[in-house]
Amino acid sequence: MKLFTDHSFHIGEQHLRQGKPCQDYALSGSLGRETAYAIVSDGCSSGGMTDIGSRLMTLATLRALHEQIPSNDFATRDSDIARDTYLESSRLNLRLETKDLLATCLWAVVHKNEVVINVTGDGVVALEFEAGMIIKTFSWQKNMPYYPAYRIGGMDEPFTENHSDNLAPLTIIESVIVTPGGDVQLTNNVVTKGVSVREGMRGIVYTESIINTALGNLRTVALFSDGIEQIDQIETVSAVKALLSFKSVSGQFAVRRMNRFLQDVKKQGRGPIDDIAYAVIHSENKETDHVNNQTTEKSNT
Amino acid sequence: MNDTMNDFSFGSGFQFSGATIDNLEASEYTLVTIALDESGSISGFESQIEDMLKAAVGACFSSPYSNNLLIRVIRFGSQYKHQNGNGVDEIHGFKPLSEIDVNAYPNLRGGGATPLNDGVYSSVGAMNQYAESLVDLDFAVNGITFVISDGGENASVATAKMVKDELKKSVTGEVMESHLSILIGINIVTDDMRKRNPTYAKQIEAKVEQDLENFQRDAGMSQFIWAGEATKSKLAKLAEFVSQSISSTSQALGTGGPSQNISATI
């Protein structure tokens, strides 16, 4: 199995107009042999300097994931604890406020035969298999997602209070899209699940095999900030599909795809209203699939 | 040829090489072609033209967009007719600047007639084809071509129509975001000739300038610049103009705007 990674982020129309920085950030790369990561963070618009917050969140997560390499147990919650420790330490060193760190955290690690995904906050996760795609959308009621910095800053209680009127403020919508022409038949392809505030605050962690019995081998794991759901005139699923239609996975393949996608969508409308970020791990299983000799590390330089 | 470069062919018998696309690390590139006339009339000016080429390419290293340049250098003269590529010899194909050693450029040796059509056709045709391959893979691409000549067409395989069609294709925005093609005329009338027969020398100068201007207009190249005498200082200015134009073209990448003429006083 050969893994290729890349990531891209872009300012949305609102922040551009308001003279604010892009508050989304993404990273991807290798964690060693046949292990790759993707991380996305979306800073809260009404927070403080969350452009810095989202970057620190991403970097703290990467550091925490590195610590899991010896055990190869990425599904554990240990990395969340380590991430929060690094985040708080950065906050203190830089004399930042908790509101500067208000940012979501989505990460994925492909290791051996599985992919571990961890979502704290909102955003979209896409798993593209040979014969179809699974898209999971995570959204919080009142557009008020949970940020790990709430825990660090002792703000869990007011957050819970804000969602006290709803037993399941986090909604996960799972759509399965079968590639036309595939021989897989799925009758019920959209599942909506409500998640309690406590469960959502812990972060949703799930593990998928890289071989789906119905959809075949995993090709791509992609994490998106919720900016993917706010592109003028473009449905989320169409946007996800377009951003994953790589013609090559060499070099800055996600950057190139994002740039071309933005060019195209701006012909139809205003483009992304909110900042948008995505990080991708692409897997190639067959020798014949190889378009080049690039390794994960090389593709991300 | 090595595994970092790929071979391509187009038209009837024209060839070029370009960096293996899968090895390219940036997401956008400015393609640059510098085509040098190596016909007999440049005899005596070879080393100045070589210096100009080295200075022009060398100056690109200090551009903030140096990592986004892919440069091709060719020379044209009827002495290359029996080689692949018709009247054109490729010194190197589209290469990242970091892989170019200007000190390894070969010495020029003037000889033969001027296949100007071949030079321009090879420059623009190769750029169109390579750009198309890049654009297909989501790279953002624009281009700039410099053709430096001291005389009009008299020995090509490529027809004027072929040249015109390739140039037209390059500026419609279908292939590249934008493309600027600049024909630069240099005057190779020697001081000796000027002293011996000043009237004749002037007539020659005027004819070359007029021929090249007509060629630029008829072919549909973006701009014609008469650099004047091929003196050391003029060619140094020309090198500066070439590198600055490359830099401006890189800077314009992503704006989606049409090619703009670059004003020059050489």
Q: What is the compact description of this entry?
A:
The complex is a heterodimer of chains A (301) and B (266). With 301 residues, chain A is of the alpha+beta class. Helix content of chain A is 29%, strand content 32%.
SSE map:
The complex is a heterodimer of chains A (301) and B (266).
Chain A: E1 2-10, H1 13-18, E2 24-32, E3 35-42, H2 50-67, H3 78-94, E4 105-111, E5 114-120, E6 123-129, E7 132-140, H4 148-152, H5 156-162, E8 170-178, E9 190-195, H6 197-202, E10 204-209, E11 211-212, E12 216-224, H7 236-243, H8 253-268, E13 276-284, H9 296-299
Antiparallel strand pairs in A: 1-13, 2-3, 3-4, 4-5, 5-10, 6-7, 6-12, 7-8, 8-9, 11-12, 12-13
Chain B: E1 5-10, E2 14-19, E3 28-37, H1 46-59, E4 69-76, E5 88-96, H2 116-136, E6 140-149, H3 160-171, E7 179-187, H4 191-196, H5 198-219, E8 223-229, H6 232-252
Parallel strand pairs in B: 3-4, 3-6, 6-7, 7-8
Antiparallel strand pairs in B: 1-2, 4-5
* CATH architecture verdict of chain A: 4-Layer Sandwich
- Per the CATH scheme, the topology name of chain A is Phosphatase 2c, domain 1
Order of helices and strands of chain A: EHEEHHEEEEHHEEHEEEHHEH
Would you state the CATH class of chain B? Alpha Beta
What is the second-level CATH architecture of chain B? 3-Layer(aba) Sandwich
What is the helix content of chain A?
25-40%
Poorly predicted residue ranges of chain A: 287-301
In CATH, what is the homologous superfamily of chain A?
Answer: PPM-type phosphatase domain
Q: What does the average pLDDT of chain B come to?
A: 90
User: Topology as H/E string of chain B?
Assistant: EEEHEEHEHEHHEH
- Count of helical stretches of chain B: 6
How much of the polypeptide of chain B forms β-strand, as a percent range? Answer: 15-25%
H/I helix tally of chain A:
9
Q: Give the C-alpha Rg of chain B.
A: 17 Å
Through-space gap between termini of chain B: 36 Å
* Oligomeric state: heterodimer
- The number of domains of chain B is 1
Number of strands of chain A: 13
User: Helix- and strand-based class of chain B?
Assistant: alpha/beta
What's the gyration radius of chain A in Å? 18 Å
